[in-house]
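Changelog note: in this version the structure field was regenerated for every chain. One regenerated record is shown below for reference.
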Amino acid sequence: MNIGYIRNSRITERSNSISTQKNLINEYCDRNEIKLDKILIDEGISGSGEKVKDRYGYQTIIKMINEGRVDNLIVISISRWGRNLGEIYRSVELMEKMGTKFHSVKENIDTSSIYGKFTLNLLSSLYEMELGLIKERTRDTLRIKKENKKVYSKIPYGYDRVGDDLVENSKEEKMIRKMLRLRNSGKSYGEIVDYLNRNRYKNKSGNKFSRGNVSWLINSRLKENYSYIG
């Protein structure tokens, strides 16, 4: 089947109205000798990633592509198909896998052509770059929060949460200093765990200490040049 897809985010949107998109899709199909079987419409719905589940037309087409029932998908622009780069790339990758040709009228994209395949590769590169940038920003945010003693993950042993701030838990800090002294005296991680559990000390989750808990606490504090004196 040859399917047209139309989406506008606001029912009052004129430049990308339903009738405008229908005309452009039909004209494109006539020029390229594609017999259009059906047009599916998502009206008044954003193309952002979090709204994709609400787009009945979009979801119907994805299901049809997965079933191998779509030969050509025609939209007036990539932005009408979606605004989330990851979602766009994954869907076009699915089309490539299932033999569906993706056509975008305004960008003049046809994934069966050399230029179309280049565009697909470009989307892939942009998507990978976006993922890398997100990871980098996340790492920077976590580092800054950690340096400023802000909550950045689960509350670590030795701290309590007050609003978005981490404040020292004196009882737990005292226990960390005890662990460091035991380690400095030559005790193994296993021996330290045995000592803690024998004396019924609990980790942040209220469970027994494990070797992983103890080694992480000790090594993270040693990296910070933490003093165990006192």
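Spot check on this record: The two ends are 76 Å apart (CA to CA). The chain has a mean pLDDT of 81.
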